Structures are given as structure tokens and as C-alpha cells.
């Protein structure tokens, strides 16, 4: 009888689902107040789109049109939830950031972990893009503290309205607390269609943008699933898994 009880307990324990702890996401009175205020409307909008608050997120940014797209995971792919207007990204125009103080905002592929979330930002709420990433460092690029933030002012960050960053921040926090370990932010100079590439073919950044287009096309042509991105031989390389 004792052996039977032991076996039953062993099977019960080993068959229980493994639940990982929620991410330790930084917060502040300001962020908690903002989230509690925007959360009900966001949940309602998501439900109307067949999406769920707390599911994984993915962000794309387009400089030329000043748009930030926020995508939510729906089963095995991501679905566009909302597009937010970017107030400004500094004075530098199209092209990647290459050095501290150049007024440029980054272009490329970035990954954001909970530690990069700043609920006490001088610019309302923010998250750090993680520039320079491995690709940027391979090219000797310099600079730091490149953010997506509120307050609608910038000298090289992506500045949103306070209303916009509050919604974005709430969706980020809910996803990270629901066990998304990090989220991807893909930043492009423009929508990388063949027409736009032809239009910009004389830019000194054309070769760099051809590399970015590979990541853009991967997402567009593979069921809206963001690629795994790595830096190799001073190029971005893309695959379906690490």
C-alpha cells in the first residue's frame, strides 16, 4: 500500500504543469496609475479584435511615416493591434545612428528585457532600445540611452505622446508579467517595399537598408512571425529559431 501511495504522489507531482515566475518588471506610482487608467479600455479594444491583454507583443517602427506598430500574438502569429503616431525622432532624418551626438535615432533590430523598462523616466514613461546592439558595436557605433518615451520631444529617441506611451507601456508590462521574457523592436527607415527601395537606391545607406529589408521580408512572408536575429560578419542574419 505504501508503495502504491508513493507512486501515486510521484506521478501527480511530475504531471503538474511547470509554471515559471512572472518577470520582475520595474514599476512606480506614476506607471501604476497610468496602467490602471488605460487598462480597462485596452482590454475592451483587444477583446473586440479577438486579442488578449497580457499576450506577447512585437513592435515595428517606421521613421519616414512616423509610425509605431504594436502587434499582439494570436495563436502562432502576430496580429496588428494598433498604430501610434510618433511625435519626433530628432533632427537626423533617415539612416542609422552612428555616433554619440549625431541627432540620429537607431535603425535595426533590438530586443528589450524587463531591466530596460523605465517607469520613472524624465520623459513620462520609457523603455531603452538597447543601442548599441551587437551589429552596432561591430560597426563601431557609439551612443547610449536611446529610448522610446513620452513627452513628445527628442534629440535622437523615438518620442510619443504621453497618451500613446501609457498604452504602449501598459501592453509591455502586461506581456512581461505574463512571462514574455523579452520583446522585439524592429526599426526601419520606411516600409521596405520594392518601390520604396528603388526610390532610395542612391542613398549611401542603401546596402544597409537591403540588409534590413531581409528582416522586413521575413516577417511579411512568414505568417507575421518575427525572425530570430543575430549579427554575423557585420551583417544581420535571420532565421526561424535561435
Overall description:
This protein has 242 residues and is α+β, with helices and mostly antiparallel strands. The chain has helices at 2-15, 29-48, 134-138, 162-177, 194-199, 206-221; strands at residues 57-62, 67-74, 77-88, 108-112, 117-118, 126-128, 147-149, 158-160, 183-188, 228-232, 235-239. The chain has a single domain (25-239), classed as L,D-transpeptidase catalytic domain-like (Beta Barrel), CATH 2.40.440.10. The chain contains 6 helices and 11 strands. The strands form 2 sheets. The chain has a 9-stranded mixed sheet with strand order 4-9-1-2-3-8-7-6-5, sandwiched between helices. Strand 2 and strand 3 (77-88) form a beta hairpin. Helix 2 crosses helix 4 (162-177). Mean pLDDT is 91; it is low at 1-21.
TL;DR?
The chain has a single domain, classed as L,D-transpeptidase catalytic domain-like.
State the domain count: 1
What sort of overall outline do the alpha carbons produce when their principal axes are compared?
A: globular
Q: Remind me, CATH topology?
A: L,D-transpeptidase catalytic domain-like
Strand order across the biggest sheet?
4-9-1-2-3-8-7-6-5
Structural class: alpha+beta
Which consecutive residue ranges, at least 5 long each, have pLDDT under 50?
Answer: 1-21
Biggest sheet details = 9 strands, mixed
Rounded radius of gyration (Å): 20 Å
Count of helices? Answer: 6
Draw up the topology in text.
Elements: H1 2-15, H2 29-48, E1 57-62, E2 67-74, E3 77-88, E4 108-112, E5 117-118, E6 126-128, H3 134-138, E7 147-149, E8 158-160, H4 162-177, E9 183-188, H5 194-199, H6 206-221, E10 228-232, E11 235-239
Parallel strand pairs: 1-9, 7-8
Antiparallel strand pairs: 1-2, 2-3, 3-8, 4-9, 5-6, 6-7, 10-11
Helix pairs in contact: 2-4
